Amino acid sequence: MTRVDHRHRHLDRIAEVRAGRHAEKVGYPIHLRETEVVRTTMVGSGLLRVTLGGPGAKGFEAHAPDEHVKLIFPEPDGSLRLPERNGMMLRWPRPAPTSREYTVRRYDPVAGEIDIDIAPHDGGLASGWAQAVQPGAVLHVAGPPGGLIVPHTYDRYLLAGDITALPAIARWLEELPRGARGWAFVEVADAAQEIELSAPQGVEVRWLHRGDRPAGTGDALARAVTAVTVPEGERVYVWAAGEAGQIKPLRRWVRDELRLEKADHDITGYWKRGVADFDEDDD
Asked: Where among 142, 172, 193 does a domain terminate?
């Protein structure tokens, strides 16, 4: 009797969605990995890249620009509580272990390295850890749990966010077809936070400087995005992430002005001013 290997059937589904008309969430088998810090480097003045490797990083999967992993940290008493494998999923202990979610910026299967870009800020758990960690330190990584696969068949793409969304936007621009058209808006403090982006020639990149205004305040991002005119008859996909209050106007815009279907946009609050470990699902 011939046994059929279904372990990688999600790859076939990803290819189907990429060639289709609407975005769709495609799940992958969820793993818990024990990785080692290889190095840390600054990317511009606003992102600290933590590169993870070691035997536990091999076989990692990265298929969607905004997919995320959970970085699991010790509890205040120094103990480490980890989820357990449960078939294709993970079984998490209760209460949940201390963790933070971050975008997968890059996976290099040849080097066996995973890059996580963190925006340093005062009082942040992962931020403080990343600024102090040394090569060789162990970090447990859970996920990704899958990703939102967006077809390469839209006429245009609109990407928008702040410094916390920049890792995903950078990966978006790298992975779009080279013939793609559209816009990318990124709000940063100043020119020092701008980084080199590999955008298709037809995608206009605009950096918005907030200057001395605190992160997560002001409406410059929303004003710039909503000034865009999508040519009549063209299909556009909108992706935006950042401070929950700042991107709220974009939800109304895609609904009331662009009249997009739910499958044609993804707008996510990555963080909220004054709230530690913000989870949009809890908001």
From this structure: 142
What is the model's pLDDT at position 281?
59
Same domain, 60 and 34: yes
Q: What's the pTM? A: 0.94
Q: How many domains does the chain have?
A: 2
Q: Which residue has the tokens 């011939």?
A: 2
Helices vs. strands in the chain: H and E counts, helices first: 5, 16
Alpha-carbon torsion (165, 168, 171, 172), positive or negative: negative
By residue range, what is the domain housing residue 190?
Answer: 154-282
Is residue 237 in a domain? yes
Q: So what's the pLDDT on residue 41?
A: 98
Query: Taking Cα atoms as reference points, which of 51, 217, 253, 25 lies closest to residue 134?
Result: 51
| CA distance linking residue 138 with residue 153, whole number of Å | 41
Q: What angle do CA 54, 59, 64 make, to 5 degrees?
A: 115
Dig out the tokens for 272 from the structure. 């909220």
Write out pLDDT tens, residues 121-173.
888 899 999 999 999 999 999 999 999 999 999 999 999 999 999 999 999 99
- Nearest-5° Cα angle at 199, 231 to 229: 20
